[in-house]
Amino acid sequence: xxxxxxxxxxxxxxxxxxxxxxxxxxxxxxxxxxxxxxxxxxxxxxxxxxxxxxxxxxxxxxxxxxxxxxxxxxxxxxxxxxxxxxxxxxxxxxxxxxxxxxxxxxxxxxxxxxxxxxxxxxxxxxxxxxxxxxxxxxxxxxxxxxxxxxxxxxxxxxxxxxxxxxxxxxxxxxxxxxxxxxxxxxxxxxxxxxxxxxxxxxxxxx
Length: 206
Hints:
Blueprint: H1 5-10, H2 13-87, H3 94-107, E1 111-117, E2 121-122, E3 126-137, H4 139-150, E4 156-169, E5 175-190
Antiparallel strand pairs: 1-3, 2-3, 3-5, 4-5
Helix pairs in contact: 3-4
């Protein structure tokens, strides 16, 4: 039997209340399914998007604050790299540099016993140019030599340094106490990257 307004009015009060509750539940279910839940999901998506945007903004703010710091550090690194590059001689400068080191030893009052270039050791971007050095002189003369080498505009590293006592007869008689020293002095140079060899053109077949 179809429910009408008149038939509902003739029902007992408990049945009227039950029908009212069912109608309200049906209205609530329809509201939840087609209005409240979709709206709630859209709000949750907006909140997640807002959180992502806030995090992105915070990261960009931090980067913006540190930009000047990074820029200043990069400038310092570039200046240091430029200074280091200026201290590495080119290949054509190596003989002149070695001659300068030999002259420094003589000017410091040392007797050069051995000045022998060793094999060049090529690395990825640079080459080590070592040479064996042996000389005799007084303590102060040796100190002056190393001091002068350290003041050179090019990098010269001293390693495998050894020192032992030596003696030399004086012209007027007597013995002069000297020191005999040996070391490996190494300078460096940039290695020019070889250009890719071009493939020879094939001649035309006759």
